[in-house]
Amino acid sequence: MLESILASLTAVSLLELLLIAVVAVLASMVGGIAGYGTGALMPLVLVPVLGPEPVVPIIAISALFNNTWRAIAFKNLIDWRRAMLVAALATPTTILSAYGYTLLTGKGAGIVIGTMLMLTVPLRYLFKRYVMALDHKGLALGAVIYGGAVGGTVGAGVILLSLLMAAGLQGAAVVATDAVISMVVTAVRMAVFGISGAIDARVVAFALLIGVVALPAAFMAKALVARMSVNFHTAILDVVVLIGGAVMIAGALAR
What we know:
Layout: H1 2-10, H2 14-34, H3 38-50, H4 55-73, H5 80-102, H6 106-130, H7 136-150, H8 157-166, H9 172-196, H10 201-213, H11 215-225, H12 231-253
Helix pairs in contact: 1-10, 2-3, 2-10, 2-11, 3-4, 3-12, 4-9, 4-10, 4-11, 5-7, 5-9, 6-8, 6-12, 7-8, 8-9
């Protein structure tokens, strides 16, 4: 297995590996500061290098590392009651949507990923404007919807972020609670992808690369989150995501 992992990494150029590592660090920092963005940024570099098919499984596995580092960094701010509620109710729909993703062709995967990336931008503004306050019943319903979105796509973290904020969480507590929920959901996705055969040595290799290099970024984000405005970073992320999503859809349709 180790030989297969090393062979997968050496199958791409050193420049491509370096590019993936740099984007992984930046994405982890953005995720630690803004609460979302890791799953939205990584496909922009992974799809051109590896193709669309392995991207969601790669991000699913690497997210386990990213969210673990983030949960450790912000451990004192986790809202465990809301975290367990959302994780439990999101699990069934996560299983269904993750399985649906494994049935897609390369063209279908590219269209799904690109579309979801582009939708994250207007979704974030819509949730911010219209989802003002959620009680436990509203949060439970939102968890079911979130599970259906996150299982087979990337960039759905914006939905979870908005739900937690509407439920009353603020600041770093949103990032901390989001990380715990994402850890559970990621484990579910990994199980589905593993059973369906979507996880191979190449997926493991790049997931490990992304997850390992993201470790210092999580703690750098913790140091910055109390003193840096995220508005400028969020605006840049929105532009990158919209352009990247459009490029992915265009590339998939051109196949």
